[in-house]
Amino acid sequence: MSHDQFNNRVAAPCIIDTGTVVNKRDIQRLLFDLGPVRYIHLQDGKIYSQGEGYVLEVFADRRRSTLIANRALYLNVYSFDCLELKQSPEQGTYFELIQDGRHLQLIPLSNPLQEQLGRNLNAAALDAVVDQVLSGNWDSQFDEDDSAL
Predict the structure, then answer these.
(1) Are residues 56 and 90 in the same domain?
(2) CA geometry: angle at 18 spanning 95 and 61, to 5°?
(3) Are residues 122 and 94 in the same domain?
(4) What whole-number distance in Å separates Cα of residue 145 and Cα of residue 149?
């Protein structure tokens, strides 16, 4: 790539905490690991439904629907024109999927940093238990070997 081609390239968007996301892959990445959420479905500014659920699947398929039922959310990024990242003092960052007059707000009920820390702690605890079991097993084998002498 020549120097001129490099300088004429448009930089990729950078959105931090607030902004509008239109790229379907970016929307999918943002929603992929949401987990438990509070959702609010608005149509022309009026609340039609709300509740809590769990994001089970986020996909991009022009022939499939977004479905919310039985506390399960199956989100198709092609059901929406864009996603707005918003900030609220009460809720922190939340996501608003928009398609014409329909808005689907998704408010995360968990913190990915805390969940990752919990996973790391659980993995460390499991490693410690396995180490104790293995070292206990080795100790008992050494004791059996010593008694056989």
Answers:
(1) yes
(2) 45
(3) no
(4) 7
Chain centre distance of CA 118: 15
Kindly list the strands in the beta sheet with 82-88, ordered across the sheet, starting from the edge strand earlier in the chain.
Answer: 19-21, 82-88, 92-99, 102-108, 36-43, 46-59, 72-76, 67-69
Is the pTM value of this prediction over 0.85? no
End-to-end CA distance of the chain: 74
Count how many domains the chain has: 2
Residue (of 30, 35, 34, 3) closest to 19 by Cα position? 30
pLDDT 10s digits, 105-145: 999 998 766 655 555 556 666 667 667 777 765 555 555 55
Please write the tens of the pLDDT for every residue from 22-35: 999 999 999 999 99
